[in-house]
Structures are given as C-alpha cells and as structure tokens.
Amino acid sequence: MLRRISAILVLNIFILLGQGKLYAQVTDTLPKKDPLRTMDTIPLGPDSLPIAPVDTTLRILNLNPYMTLHVDSSINYQLEINRVPGNYFWYLRNAPVGLKIGKDDGRLTFKAEKSLFLSGRLKYDQEYKVQMGVQNLSDPKERIDTFFTLMFYNTEIVISRLKPGVSETIFIDEGDTLSIPVQCERGSFPIETISTLTDASLKGYESVRKCDDIFKWAVPYDFVKDGDKEKQKTFHITFVGADKFYNRDTAKITVVVRDALNYPFRKDEYGRVVKEIQRYILQLKFSFKELDKNVKRTKGTRTGFDLMSGSSALAGTVLSTSSADADKNIGKVMPSVGVALVPVKEAVSPVKAYESNSAAQVRTSIKRLEYSLSDNALVGETDPEILTKLAKLRSDLKQVQTQLIDVPMVDTGGMSEEELNQYFNSPRVNKKYKLTRN
Q1: Do residues 275 and 237 share a domain?
Q2: Where does a domain end: 153, 179, 197?
Q3: What is the percent of the chain with per-residue pLDDT over 70, rounded to a whole number?
Q4: pLDDT of the residue at 181
Q5: φ, ψ for residue 403 (rounded to 5)?
Q6: What are phi and psi of 121, to 5 degrees?
Q7: Is the domain of 252 the same as that of 271?
Q8: Distance (Å, whole) CA 274 – CA 291
Q9: How do residues 282-305 score in pLDDT, each as one tens digit?
Q10: 236: which of 58, 205, 264, 304 is 20 to 30 A away, CA to CA?
Q11: Which class for 122: exposed (0-12), middle (13-18), buried (19 or more C-beta within 10 A)?
Q12: Same domain flag for 324 and 428
C-alpha cells in the first residue's frame, strides 16, 4: 500500500515538472511596444494612400432639407456648423409668418397657430421655400447660403364651400342676361373642379368650371310659352364643386323667368304697320283726287246748262216787252228753250251724288288715319304702351278699309307724296269739304 502511494506521488512530481517546461516554451519573448509612441517609422511606398486633408469648408451639419409640421405643433431646432459658433451670424429670407432663427446660435423656432391659417396668411399643403444662411463676422468670404422646404398639414378636414354671388331665388324677365358669379370658401383642400347642372333645356349659356367663374345666359323672348302658368317658368341651376379627394359641396339656385315684351320685334312690327298705313293714305289721297275731279267736272257742266237756261228765260222776258212783233214772238219762244235745257242737263251731266259722298268719306278716312298715326306715335326709346298703340293702329286701319271697301283703290298715278299732300291740303279743297252750319 505504501509503495503504491509512493509511486503516485513520484508520478505527479514528474507531470508537474513537464508542464512547467512546456509553459516556458510558449512564453512571448518579443519586446513590448511603447504605448506612447504614435509615429509610424515605416516609410510609405509609391502605392500607399495619401493622408486626407483637413475639412476647411463652412457647412451646416444637421439641416433637414424638407420639413413637415402639424398645425398645432412647434419647431425648436438647433442648427450646427463645423466651426466654433461664437463668431457667426445666422439669417433667414422670405420666411413664412412666425418662423424665426437665433442670429447668434442658429436655433430655428416656430409656433404654428390656427389664427394664421384662418386669416389666410398661412396655407395648408403648400410648400414654403425658406432661404437661409450663416456668415462669418470676421471673414466676409466665409459664408453659406442654402434653403429648406417647409409644409404645414392639418388632420382636421374642413370642407371647401361654394358661395354663389346671388340669392337662392332669382326673378328675371325675358330678354335680360342672367349672370351668376360663383366664388369658393377655401377649406382644408381647395375646390378644383365645378360642374354646372340645369333641369331645363338651356342654349348658349357659359358654364362654371372653376372658382370665380361667372355663369351667363341670355334669356330668349320665347322661353316662356303661352301655356305656362302665370306667364312665368321656373327652373333650377345646380353647381357641384369637388376637391382632389372628391369631397363635394353643392349650391342650388332657383330661377324664375317672367314673360316679357320682345320690344325689338314689336318695334319692327310697329314700323311695318306705320308704313302700311302711310302707303294706304297715299292711295286714298289719289283716289280722292280722281273723285274730286269727276265731281268738279260734272258741277261745271251743270252750271253751264243752268246759266244757259236762265239766260234764255231772261232774254225771252226782255224780248216780249219789245215793240217789234218779231222780237215779241222770239220772246215767247225763249223761256221754252230754257225749260227744254233742263232734261238735256240731266241727261248730259247727271248729279254725281255717289262720287261726291265717296270723296267726302275718303277725305274723312284720311284725316282719321293721320290723326291715329300722330296720336299713337312711340314715346322714348322703349315705350311701354307699344302693344296698345300697335293694336289701335291695326284696329283703325281695319275699320277704314272696311268702310271704303266699295271705293276703288288706284295707284298714285306717278304723283309724288308731296304733290298729293299739296292738292289734298289746298285751300280750295279744304273750303269745298269744310263742314258748315245749316
């Protein structure tokens, strides 16, 4: 037992001696490098990389080129440069309202308030290009100018509204021009397109396609029909606006068109009736001239026979008082001769009662039509009683034509209007056809 223990001890001693010898063989014998020595003593070869030069350009290290900001948030952003910031000046150009920068330290600050957007000084979804720069106060050449983009957004959606420039109900007369300006109340997203809808068939109107356009339509005179109730016609115009997300707003206008007088057409019609009456008056004047000539010729012939008959009776009376028998015999015959001329007068030149009455009637009709023309003349540029006067002229013309339906109408015979008027208004004719008291 003791031998076995002795043998184990001797064996362990040899093992320990062998391990110590192995450890001595792997121990590092190189001299240690001095940690304070930093210079490389190995010479550079021809293919070695050059040492990078020191950065001497003025730069802003942390500028974000694009910033988005919520309407209820704020900015407090410290800009940094690759220099000691003590001797540099910071500035902004064309910055939006409320955006500021510290001139000494380059701190960018902004507080977005809703009042700025409600007043229109700031707008959503619009990119603001902000020019900025930093300048060395000691060296004017050392400066940098750059820019960044700032855009505001809002998560609260406000619908844009259409605002027509008229009331909801419009009354308009035929012949007038309907004009409706359409404006837009801007919300979160502006209205981009506007559609125009009508529930009536309209021709020639100008539709609205974008904000601030004007709807125009010239109302025709025949728009209101005879069968329309209360002589007016009602229709609706609907404007539908939409933004880029198809949020819609609608504005509806009710238009009441009232029946109105087509004055240009009625004025032309009035002129045609006046010309027709004037032409008819000239025809009547020439007919009156011919009738008056016939009456005058007949009257002259009958007057000649009457003078011959009276002269015969007077000569017979004178001769009957003569002392000579022959003269007395002739004086007895002469009154018979005068009596014999009476039937001859009636046969040769009968009384023209029809022609005389017709001439007087034609003259009266001419005077009536001339008075009607002067009494129903138009007053001003737009006479509101043109329809009444036009109806009166037509009525008078029709009555005169009915009364003189048996009187033959002839042409003016080559006589001018001035010649006919001179004859019709001559003193002899006026005296002849003037009314006298019995």
Answers
A1: no
A2: 153
A3: 67
A4: 94
A5: -70, -35
A6: -75, -25
A7: no
A8: 25
A9: 888 887 777 767 666 665 665 665
A10: 264
A11: buried
A12: yes
* Reported pTM: 0.46
How much of the chain is in helix, strand and coil states, percent to nearest 5? 40, 20, 40
Distance CA 356, CA 362 (A): 10
**Size of the chain, expressed as the number of residues it contains:** 438
DSSP for 334-361? HHHHHHHHHHHHHHHS---HHHHHHHHH
CA–CA dist 69, 112 (Å, integer): 8
Of 402, 431, 398, 425, the C-alpha closest to 285 is 425
CATH number reported for the structural domain that contains residue 367 in this entry? 1.20.1270
Say which CATH number the domain at 143 has: 2.60.40.10
- Can you tell me the distance from the alpha carbon of 85 to that of 68, in angstroms, rounded to the nearest whole number? 27
Q: Region 347-352: what's the mean pLDDT?
A: 56
Domain range spanning residue 131?
66-153
Instruction: Taking the CA atoms of 360, 366, 367 and 368 in sequence, report the sign of the dihedral they define.
Output: positive
71 and 188, same domain (yes or no): no
Overall average pLDDT of the 361-374 stretch: 87
How confident is the model over 305-339, as pLDDT tens digits? 566 666 666 666 666 666 666 666 666 666 666 66
Q: How many domains does the chain have?
A: 3
* HSE (side-chain half, CA atoms, 13 Å) at 283: 14
Please report, to the nearest 10 degrees, the dihedral formed by the alpha carbons of residues 354, 355, 356, 361 taken in order.
Answer: 90
Taking each helix axis from N to C end, the angle separating 263-320 and 417-424, rounded to the nearest 10 degrees, works out to 50
Q: What angle do CA 23, 29, 31 make, to 5 degrees?
A: 150
- Helix (H) or strand (E) segment spanning residue 117: helix 114-118
Shared domain for 91 and 213, answered yes or no, is no
DSSP of 252-302? EEEEEEEP---HHHHHHHHHHHHHHHHHHHHHHHHHHHHHHHHHHHHHHHH
With 50 as the cut, is the pLDDT of residue 24 above it?
no
The burial of 215, by beta-carbon neighbours within 10 Å (0-12 exposed, 13-18 middle, 19 or more buried), is given as: buried
